[in-house]
Specification:
Elements: H1 38-78, H2 83-128, H3 132-144, H4 150-162, H5 164-175, H6 185-202, H7 206-210, H8 214-241, H9 244-276
Helix pairs in contact: 1-2, 1-6, 1-8, 1-9, 2-5, 2-6, 3-4, 8-9
Keywords: Membrane, Transmembrane, Transmembrane helix
Membrane topology: Multi-pass membrane protein
Pfam families: VIT1
Amino acid sequence: MAYPSESSPLLPSELPVERPFPTAFDSKPLSRDASPSPSTASSSSSSAAAGLSDTLRDIIIGFSDGLTVPFALTAGLSSLGSTKLVIMGGLAELFSGMISMGLGAYLAAATERDHYRSQRAGVLAACASPARAEQRDELYAVLDKYRVSRAAAAPLVEELCAHPDQWVRFKMDFAMRMDEPPGHRACVSGATMGLSYFVGGLIPMVPYFVMARVRDALLVSVAVTVVILLAFGYAKNYVAVRNHRAGVWGALQTLVIGVLAAGTSYVIVKALDRGSS
């Protein structure tokens, strides 16, 4: 930056040219050369963030269930003393659970997508009606929740009413609080949750594949699963809250749930085996 000196003038030789600034009331539309627009960029970024959040949720649910349920089942079956029985029962539950969790996630996402489309179709039908006054009143009611005065909201309301697509999008986003799910969301959700369940459930079963004695395999499985439960519980809470205390609390919660499930399964199967003998 050049500072003025005794030999340089304090004022510039040429005054800056004042350029007109477009307002919301200009009759001419703004230039469309700049792309992407801020609204498009913000919409794409918010959609990406929502997709990442949904994927993370599916991973957490699938992995935690997979780590808990097959572990509890194999721990209970290990009380019978047969490695083959543990492996057969564990694999049967693992594959059936993976299919069930994946299908459930797919159906839930597909139902959410269909619900959004039906609601949007209803809003489009309402937008096609000539009742502009009702459309303006709806927009004013939404903006009034954010304490926006009618005088300040009038240009925005007129602009939205002049563009039906933007009016529908505004109503879906702010009035109905519904985000448009991606078209491939159902398939991704089902595959993510199913694979997460399979990976989580396979970890406690690995010792039974490589060790001959059921008791030794059970001890190794418990030790490995405890470590995984602690790490997973800490990671999922820390990623969500960004706090070490929340991570420790999540680790303890996950560990307690897993231990209670495995212990209960072991005791019940052991009691049933003694009762039948």
